[in-house]
Each structure stands twice: as C-alpha cells, then as structure tokens.
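Lab notebook, bench 4. Still working through the backlog of constructs that have no structural model yet. Next entry is a single chain of 133 residues. Request: give me the structure tokens for it.
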Amino acid sequence: MGKLEGKIALIAGGNSGIGLATAKQFVNDGAYVFIAGRRAPELAAAVKEIGRNATGVQGDVSNLGELDRLFAQIKREKGKLDIVFANAGVARFAPFGTITEEFYDSIFNINVKGLLFTVQKSLPLMPDGPLSS
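Model written out:
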C-alpha cells in the first residue's frame, strides 16, 4: 500500500515538467490525480503517459468559471480532494520598456490570481485538519 493510497489530488499545471513528474509520483504512491492544463493535446498526452488513475481537465486557472467547472467535476467524480498542488504558471519575458499592461496581466492572472483562486476554491472539498498518515 502506497503512502497516498486512497487520496485524491489535484495538480494544476500537471501536463508537463514538475507537475507531470509529481502526478506520476502521486499515482505510483497510490493517489488518484486530476491534472489541469490549458492545452488539450498536451493534457491528453500527459494522461496517457501517467497511464492510470488520472483524469485530465482542460482549463485556464486564471478563469474563475473554468476553475468552478474543474472543482465541480472533482466533486461529482470523487466527492473530495485531499491534496492540492497549485503548480500552474508561466514564465514570459520582454525587454524593459516594451512591457504592456496586457503582457503584465497575462502573467499575473495565471501566476498570482490562478494560484490564489485554485487554493481558495479547493477548500470546500478538503477534509478538515491535516492529512492522516
């Protein structure tokens, strides 16, 4: 029995990099994972790569309606959430003096707004208190 046996996890930004590696490890440790990502092809490939106990949910963490849809799906399919890894983020660069408000907003909407609302909207599905071992 794995240390995450029976746990339900959400990994926002779970379709590549650290998020995908974490999803694989969580599944190997016994968890069921929902991975969220913006790009459908990469999300489908990640679910296939994980192989089992994974559901991909396409959406943008900076869009509150899409977050609501994500958490509604988790509630409908599993009824609870034990682990949240708010990993979605972007790194975009532009020379100083060329940064626009739209450029700034696109980064902060994902990296800050998305992080905050992913965690906040997960709370109603989380059990009270710390995880038991």
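Notes after review: The chain has a mean pLDDT of 94. The first strand starts at residue 8 and ends at 12. Flag for follow-up if needed.
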